[in-house]
Amino acid sequence: MGVSVRHSDEVASAIADGTPIVALESTVYSTLGLPAPQNRNALDRSVAAITQQGAVAAVTAVIEGELWCGIEPSLIDRIFSSSAKAAERDLPIAVGQRWPVGVTTVSASLAIAAASGVSVFATGGIGGVHRGYVHTADESADLGAIARHKVATVSAGAKSFLDLPATLERLETLGAPVVGWNTDTFPAFTARSSGIAIQHSISELSSLAAVVQTQLGFGRGILVANPVPVDHALDQHVHDEALTQALNQVAEQGLSGPEVTPFVLGAIAEASAGQSVPANLALLENNCRLAADLARQLTEID
Length: 302
Ligand code: PSU
Ligand code: MN
Fold this sequence. Notes:
The protein is an alpha/beta fold. The protein has helices spanning 9-17, 38-52, 91-96, 106-115, 133-136, 141-148, 164-174, 205-217, 236-253, 260-271, 276-301, and strands at residues 5-6, 21-24, 56-63, 66-69, 85-86, 101-104, 120-122, 152-155, 178-181, 200-202, 222-225.
């Protein structure tokens, strides 16, 4: 007895006939991830990038207490205004208590994708180990989910406000391989590089697919780190100033738990005078494109 997941007609037929599919989260497209109306624009661009590369996009969410992998187009508007964040551990609550809408984080999306047999997932930047972890023990559920579920995650590394060395250490402990797409350093979301070395850089789609296929064969996941496109990286000075301001605000307001990430993302957008948003959109689109290429290549191996 597994969980029951609903699919749009388009995604249901893609599952049935083996068309490549890329799962997407919904938190990043809600008010928690990007300011309106850019969140809608971000989803349109993400879906278009996946479609152009010959794959089908499957947005995950909880709607009226049901899990969706490939939301029905008539229901998609529900996610743009939602602020009900659902991580993996919230899914049983969201279903059991019939939440009208729950926007899925990376961890929740991976659980739903895996339950639907979808092998590739794209996001912007994953969550990770927060700075000050020794005091708060705040580590995103994303990391465990990336390792545990039989799905490849494509992201522009992890967000710059995290403790990135600790994030990579945790991925190692959890047994999640990290491979760079044309990079031998870990990307830091709107920055192409954090300066932290990662061991494996891959630049051929066929070898990426072979690595992913092997790890999925173990029934487990992998992180593919794809740097933001050169022209769209956020100016480092603008970023650093905005980040310092945002982190000070978190400390002043004594924020903790699931509200930290949306707050910091919003504060960075504000403090960078909106400059972080186009970078965010560009890297999302870029990850969707690579994820679709990977999904296509995987179906060719099969
Ligand atoms: N990356 C973004 N915007 C976001 C997130 C990631 O560019 O909104 C979301 C993702 O859904 C991710 C979540 O899974 O933040 C992590 O939250 P937390 O740190 O509370 O685990
Ligand atoms: Mn947390």
